[in-house]
Write a structure and sequence with these properties.
Number of helices: 4
Number of strands: 8
Strand content: 35-45%
Radius of gyration: 33 Å
Number of domains: 2
Oligomer: single chain
Order of helices and strands: HEEHEEHEHEEE
Strand order of the largest sheet: 3-4-2-5-7
Length: 248
């Protein structure tokens, strides 16, 4: 009876060992199959250069007075003049969008009372205008500056593309071709056969130009002059990371 009991224990231990080994083997296999480190990893880049077709102008007005009502009235009158100037120069109403509106206190430090006191109120109103006729960009800036007078503020301006989709598609084609060329070379150098892609990741980049002005007080520009605006070129680029299988 004693020998039989010992044999039973031995079989139980062996069975557990085989079970644990089987579990470990299964886990390793799943990890191996899920790993994306297998194969040939390459990065491809594609770039497309084009001329912008949109000029975005962020501008507005800022007025200050002793009461909110007086400051708001001044700002509203000036902004109405600015918007009228934009529309008179061909900017459609749907291409003018309010970006920011704020009312804030104007304070100063009172040495006698040792505290800040309110001296007035400042009202700011900003819109973004989408200029589609780039040849008129300079004239539009001048017209807006004249319309708003000393209340006019130019916040930022920049060029962009209204529909970058076709340029993204061209950039992708170039990026994938670049990735394939690199993978073929690596496979050839390593002496292996290149398989199909098993993983693809993309990172789009859109480099638009932007000129930013902070706290710029625009004076009415002379009728004879025009602010020079040069669109230059924009670059649409994409980067792809591709994993190619190695054929046994």
């Amino acid at each position: 009876m004693k020998k039989v009991w010992l044999i039973g224990v031995s079989l139980l231990v062996l069975g557990s060992a085989f079970f644990l080994a089987g579990c470990q083997g299964s886990t390793t296999t799943l990890t191996g199959f899920s790993s994306q480190q297998e194969g040939i990893w390459v990065t491809g880049q594609g770039e497309v250069t084009t001329t912008p077709d949109i000029f975005n102008l962020s501008l507005g007005v800022e007025a200050q007075d002793t009461t909110v009502d007086q400051a708001q009235t001044k700002a509203a009158d000036a902004m109405n003049q600015v918007i009228s100037a934009l529309k008179d120069n061909g900017i459609a109403e749907e291409d003018i969008q309010t970006q920011n509106f704020s009312i804030s206190q104007v304070t100063k430090w009172d040495q006698t009372r040792q505290e800040s006191i309110t001296t007035g109120y400042r009202v700011s109103n900003t819109v973004v205008a989408k200029v589609r006729d780039l040849d008129k960009a300079g004239d539009i800036i001048d017209a807006a500056a004249r319309a708003g007078g000393d209340y006019t503020r130019i916040n930022s301006m920049g060029f962009t593309i209204d529909d970058p989709t076709p340029y993204y598609e061209q950039a992708r084609e170039k990026a994938m071709a670049d990735a394939l060329a690199k993978a073929k070379q690596l496979a050839n150098l390593a002496g292996v056969t290149l398989g199909n892609p098993t993983y693809v990741s993309e990172s789009l980049q859109y480099n638009s130009t932007s000129v930013i002005y902070r706290d710029v007080y625009m004076e009415a520009a002379p009728q004879a002059s025009s602010t020079p605006i040069t669109p230059g070129e924009l670059e649409v680029s994409t980067t792809v990371q591709v994993t190619y299988a190695i054929v046994p």
